[in-house]
Amino acid sequence: MASVQSYTFGCIILHVLTYQLFYLSAQSRMDRGHCCVKLSVKPSRGLMDEKFIVLVQNVPPGFQLTIHALHKCEDGHSWEAFAHYTANAAGTVNVSEDPSLGGTFSGVEQMGLLWSLRPVPGSKPALRMRKENVQTPMEVAISGYQGHQTEGFTDQVQLAGTVVERWYMAPGVRRVPITEGGLTATLFLPPGPGPFPGLLDLWGGGGKLVEYRAALLASHGFASLALDYLTPKITIETGKMVDNSYFETAYRVLEQHPQILGSRIAMLGLSFGTSITLKMAVYSKVMKLRCAVSISGSHVQPIHGSVEQMLNAFNENASKIRINEENQVICRDLTLPIPTEPALKVDVGRLQCPLLLVVGEDDQNWAAYEAAMDIKDMMERAGNSHLLTILSYPNAGHLIEPPYTPHVRASAYRSVNTHEKIVALWGGETVAHSRAQEDAWRKTLVFLREHLYGGRNPGATSLSHL
Amino acid sequence: MWSVHFATQHLNASGSTWLSETKISRRLSTMSWTAPPIVSVVPSRALVDEKIKVVVENLPPGSPVTLHSLHHSEDKDYWEAYGHYFSDHRGMVSVAEDLSFGGTYTGKEAMGLLWSMRPVPGSRQGLRLRKKDVCSPMLVNISVHSGHIAEGFRQRPPLASALIERWYMAPGVQRISIKERGVQGTLFIPPGPGPFPGLLDLWGGSGGLVEYRSSLMASHGFTSLALDYLSTDYEDPPFSSVEKAFAILKGHPQVIPDRVGIFGLSFGSILAIFFAAESATVKPFCCVCVNGNHIYPPGKSFKGMNQELLKNFNKVRVDENNHQIWRDMGRAIFHTPSNKLDVGKINCPMLLVNGVDDQNWPTVESSEDMADRMNAAGKGHLLTRLEYPDTGHLIEPPFSPHFRATNFTGWATKEKVILLWGGQTKPHSDAQEDSWRKILAFLQHHLYSSLTPKAKM
């Protein structure tokens, strides 16, 4: 009997203790304020180029807070950003209104938690963030921590946190792989019956089929074809580089598509993609471009050369490539000095469509700024400079991409040309470069909207939500 | 000439591609140099209670156009709404700023294309739009047509269109099936370390497991349990079921144990009031009661309540459409003084949301009676009453369509009837929008802000 009694008594004690422990742990959770802090991001699902508002509420007035962003890439690497804030008298922090006192960015920077992302400590060097699968969103975990922290976030307890989705594809955008005519390409069609203006989207010397910018452009109403012209299936299989007719085939695919307006096709290129864009815009008998955008590139090239010949011309000038103290490769001198001989640069005086040039003045990979100045000069002398708009950004580097993705000053690079793995210096200072990306993207969309949608109807160029 | 055939598919499992099969013949050559208008909706992906801005650009200036919304439901019905607009000198229409001059809504209505949706002509009767799968979004097609038209939208191609996603679940919200202690439900946990205030989510007497309000509340920071309180092993549904569910919530590591409230609608509200007044074990920290009240035969089980209703079934009227009006049956039960829960014993804040045109239950009269009784007991300060004119029984999260009468299968009789819920579309939609904001503020205030952060932080 005694043992049963003590057992029963013991059970009671155990229950009481368990209850007390549970209550105490809940209480201490409350004491640490974990339960009352609210962190929200609006919108929680947005396009890559849309702004969001990060709001923290219910902390004590004057509370020191760190807001942290964490993103795990498809390649397994983690990137983070963080900023230090002090809560106001109402106990809130609003990232779009309050200044960051330090972290990976400072001052009032609504989107700083995205553009200042950098690889977490201990990561492989020379990384670059590029989304491969555009049909899934980029997920970013945004959390709040007590105090002004700078490291060891994964070991600490968050006060609050949420997840944000960032999409390259708007709902209803259709992704269509294109293999006709021997092309390696992907077409992105906006939602709706169409027909839509079209756009040929070219990246640079690293090759591969890079889809994200075309997907985003389609989300803004342009049927966009991302084209792999350096490592397409046909080159991999035959070992031969494509010739100029490959680009004309891509143009024809757009022109003949039942949902694309054949008379409203643009071309957009970055880096080596600019070389192709300028060449085709001026010399192609097949392509009748409505307008062109050239980012971080140059008109300096053997004008009658194919892709292979253009790349060889760079190889011949390899001695002009410099390497800095950090072993980063600077290629900008390859197209300097700007030649005076007509056969060595695209005759932009003969251009018949509007051209938007976007250049970063700290571009260490291509002499894009110098090229832009020479293009301006040539067009003024030829009398067609009314077609030209130059956006030149001080302290911006080579990789001027859609906004709110991280800037990297240098990253691992393997050119299809040399097949060497190097670390290329792109240039740019993060804050200035990020501002340049935001400004250039908005102006590029306005330019494309005006020339590809405008014309017959009075101009409609408001993009007030961006 | 156009010939267009749209066949829509829901989003596939991996998320983002919407396939639309179109057979379009080439446009007339005279039109090939004109670019079409552009429809943009911001945000294109949003929670169902978030507002959108619909803008059309590149129209001819000063042209009459119709903006149209179309949704293909999980039940395979089509729902639509439309408004008649004029473009300005820039060829632009902005739904948030311009006025609609006709259609399923008129005036300046930023969200009219959503809340004024109704089944397309020729649809089945008595339909109700309720999302079952909360892990996928509701897809709505927003398009612009030339001229002011009122029908045949799906037979003619729009000038342009956009697709939007409306979500009941924010990213990071976890969905967990609960089947324990004889309880069937779904738990939704907000993202973040937690713990969070808890909510027990109780719908009406037709039963079933309805998840969308819980997933939406979790998206606002409350760990919410949607409960199918009629489907249970216990002999006395819903009482033991609710008791056990409440205990599950309180004991959950992601719930702050003394910050658990109840959100009820219709019979779910009656349950909330029952527990707040009469229960010794279930003590909600606060309650939101939509169109439900303290009418309940004391000591009666759910079956007993049903018998009470059946006794008074002769009071059920039908309107000119043969839709059943249950209000007077409720009134008859109400007029028996003993059929009242002892609301004087309530000790927690209560938010009552009622529709004055509720044809299903006499909610306004009974809430007045409830207020009198609580005042008499010195508990009047705990009560907030919102009464919306021309508003019916089904006051749901905002921007969802209004249903004046829908199909209903009674738990008592198993008959299929059409019940009249009441309300007129525009005032009812206003009530949904206004009450939702106030409900969130009430829950935020009691379940969140009353937790004061410690000074040592």
Explained architecture:
The complex is a heterodimer of chains A (466) and B (457). With 466 residues, chain A is of the alpha/beta class. Chain A is built from nine helices and 21 strands. Chain A has helices spanning 2-31, 112-115, 212-218, 233-238, 244-256, 272-283, 307-316, 368-382, 430-453, and strands at 38-42, 45-47, 53-57, 64-72, 78-86, 93-94, 118-119, 138-146, 160-167, 174-178, 185-189, 196-202, 223-227, 260-270, 291-295, 322-323, 329-330, 355-360, 388-393, 410-414, 421-425. In chain A, the strands form five sheets. In chain A, strands 10-11-13-12-14-15-18-19 form an eight-stranded mixed beta sheet, sandwiched between helices. Chain A has a six-stranded mixed beta sheet with strand order 2-9-8-4-5-7. Chain A is globular, with a radius of gyration of 27 Å. Chain A starts with a helix and ends in a 13-residue tail after the last helix. Chain B is of the alpha/beta class. Helices cover 20% and strands 27% of the residues of chain B. Chain B contains eight helices and 23 strands. Chain B has helices at residues 112-115, 212-218, 239-251, 267-278, 302-311, 327-334, 363-376, 425-449; strands at 7-8, 20-21, 38-42, 45-47, 53-57, 64-72, 78-86, 93-94, 118-119, 138-146, 160-167, 174-180, 183-189, 196-202, 223-227, 255-265, 287-290, 317-318, 324-325, 350-355, 383-388, 405-409, 416-420. In chain B, strands 12-13-15-14-16-17-20-21 form an eight-stranded mixed beta sheet, with helices on both faces. A six-stranded mixed beta sheet of chain B has the order 4-11-10-6-7-9. In chain B, a hairpin with a 5-residue loop joins strand 18 (317-318) and strand 19 (324-325). The longest helix of chain B has 25 residues, at 425-449. The termini of chain B are far apart. Mean pLDDT of chain B is 88; it is low at 1-32. Chains A and B meet through helix 1, strand 1, strand 2, strand 8 and strand 9 of A and strand 3, strand 4, strand 5, strand 10 and strand 11 of B.
